[in-house]
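Fold this sequence, please.
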Amino acid sequence: MPVADADGIPTRYEVTGSGPPLLMFSPGGFDSSGEAWRTVGVYRRLRLLDHLSRHYTCVTFDRRESGGSGGRLERLSWSAYARQGLGLLDHLGIDSAHVMGGCVGCSTAVQLAAEHPDRVRGAVLYSPAGGVHYRRKQHERFRTHLAFAEKHGLDEVARLARATDTGFTEDPRPGPWVRLLRADEDFASRFAATPLSRYLALAEGSARLLFDRDTVPGPEPEDLLALDVPALVVPGQDTSHAPSAARYLQECLPLAEYWNVPVAEQTEASAPARILRFLAETDRARAPGTDGAGGTDGTDGAGGAQHAGATAEVRS
């Protein structure tokens, strides 16, 4: 796969298909690689990338500190993740694109939309990560890592990372930079030489910034309420993708459509078709010469436009 410089970070990416651009923020937690669209959870079953790339130019990539991408030892934030996606758009010469997030990728997708709404045509937010159990699990992982680092030191953190083949989600002890520690000896040396107190502050601050609420983390709700970007929200249904997380996005995003279908009924036949319909309607609404009512009101083209600012709930 090609590698681009995105926000100063080597970023492994892939471009598939043709048509309008669709930037895809991967699922997978702290191992959000581009391959996750084909291999992780519900996305493997739905084969979304295969279907979407028949109509859109799909840009997938490894999130920083994941897969084959690089990273930096700094306080992690949703803005930092969004800058990587923005840098990839700049590298590819794409002025504006649809964005799609899966799982944790939803937080980055809406962060990019909130910070750069002129670059985002529409947003698909599939099974957003969030909820009280999700926040608690993430903080527990960081607590486990911080306790290990404080007790054993950063040399031992780096050694453990190289001695294992698991990610931060499976074994929190080596921390969120585990894949870089394993793949980049220069990074591992600089990591081990970092003063422990400084590192603990960075890691603790990352946990606080990334997982600061029991809803979907990312932009502040006031930023979402002001966001003039059409969005399709698809609910998850487990302790990491609480239905309440999807409902929160529906509540906050003024131009949201909510696909009210349980996960068990989201199939390879229905899910890609629903996403493609939303994207096509959004593109029609943006086309020159239209009146802006090109079907993004959630009525599936059947009329009955809703008042401005209302969200739509569509089951079929």
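The mean pLDDT is 92. The longest strand covers residues 9-16.
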